[in-house]
Amino acid sequence: LLFSLSLSHTHQLSLSVSPSFFLYPIPSSQRPESEGVRTSLRLLVSSASQLQDECREGHNLSSRLRRYDDGSISQEERAQVALVTQRVIQCAYDIAKAAKQLVQFVESS
What we know:
single chain
């Protein structure tokens, strides 16, 4: 359920960050010639795309889970879900980190 709800949100996130290269208000003295700005924008866009992929994978995984009579899942499947969940968390962290870096670039100019 978590992954299926996230699919539409991650799609919207990817659509909104992709144009950042063109819309982000970077002063002319720090246009994307600045390596730090380029790196942050790349991290933002790639992490949003990866987040969408990870949520899609999580959704597919959760739809294939085999449940026991008591509703539990196997150790192997639990490990797979935990791994995808960790990758989703890492993507979210990277998005926040990139956004913070971009804000710092703007504030410092």
